[in-house]
Design goal:
The chain is mostly beta strands and 283 residues long. The chain has three helices and twelve strands, in the order H-H-E-E-E-E-E-E-E-E-E-E-E-E-H.
Length: 283
């Protein structure tokens, strides 16, 4: 099916295709979806956050001829950050506060298949930094992940929009909020917090995709045990940099040891390594 030019106007480059079949595991589901160039599973396209599409129908020779094919008004007059997510024939659009989500059928005149309107306390807007925005959605295991501004991480059924689970990540009453796009890796969802301007002790945390339970949390400051680093953190441990996709530049070595950066498609780590030091090696 031909590429829909409005996708570019909405900030993403992804073609239309039939709904891809659900696979057995969350990890395989995520990897297969990303590998299909007709999808745009992450707000930035892939794990490396490159914002690059392998589709070739639109190129430097014809891009000047692009025109708007259709528009969709979200009804929220604030900043819209992060690209919509596309999986198969479905486009998932998010908004700034109150973080509404719409599922549009691209094979049926952009019909709204479902919508989600979270009920959030308006007072959270007073502590949000840098506009009342949301930087995007996540997809994995048949779920659309939304990090609400009020600190709630929500999993929605990608087909129906039904809320599967919700868990509180941050408390806005102490100045901790969320504007980030959830990052899904294997069967975990990575998220954190905003609020350093209010003296909030922020962190990186992983929640289980299946039920929203906390898997681990690494604070940005504090004792080594709470930052999830060990006694050998400052020594050369290239094995801890298994997630690196960037080469050393300007003669430097960001790894602290001899290590050849992996390509984006070669990111493979053992489950036992996920969340301990591997994520936190200085880059």
């Amino acid at each position: 099916m031909k590429f829909n030019t409005m996708k570019l106007a909405l900030g993403l480059v992804a073609g239309l295709s039939a709904v891809m079949p659900m696979v057995a595991s969350a990890a395989a589901d995520q990897e297969a979806a990303i590998a299909n160039a007709n999808n745009w599973v992450d707000p930035r396209g892939n794990y490396a956050q490159q914002g690059y599409s392998a589709l070739a129908q639109i190129n430097k020779g014809n891009v000047k001829n692009l025109k708007a094919a259709w528009t969709f008004a979200t009804g929220v007059n604030r900043g819209h950050e992060g690209s919509p997510v596309v999986v198969g024939n479905m486009m998932y659009v998010h908004t700034a506060f109150p973080n509404n989500v719409y599922a549009l059928d691209l094979n049926d005149n952009q019909k709204i298949v479902w919508s989600y309107f979270p009920k959030q306390d308006p007072s959270v807007q007073a502590v949000l930094c840098c506009d009342n925005v949301s930087r995007g959605l996540g997809f994995g295991d048949g779920k659309i992940m939304l990090q609400q501004n009020d600190g709630n991480l929500v999993a929605l059924d990608a087909k129906t929009g039904a809320k599967i689970w919700s868990t509180l990540v941050n408390d806005p009453k102490i100045g901790a909020t969320n504007t980030n796009a959830p990052q899904i890796r294997k069967d975990k969802i990575l998220t954190g917090c905003s609020g350093a301007e209010f003296g909030v002790r922020c962190f990186l945390a992983a929640y289980n995709l299946k039920d929203g339970s906390l898997a681990w949390k690494a604070y940005s400051t504090g004792p080594d045990a709470e930052v999830l680093i060990g006694a050998d953190f400052n020594s050369a441990n290239p094995q801890y940099s298994a997630l690196s996709v960037y080469k050393d530049i300007n003669g430097g070595n960001k790894q602290g040891g001899s290590f050849e950066a992996l390509k984006a498609g070669e990111i493979k780590i053992g489950e036992k390594e996920l969340g301990t030091r591997t994520w936190l090696k200085p880059q």
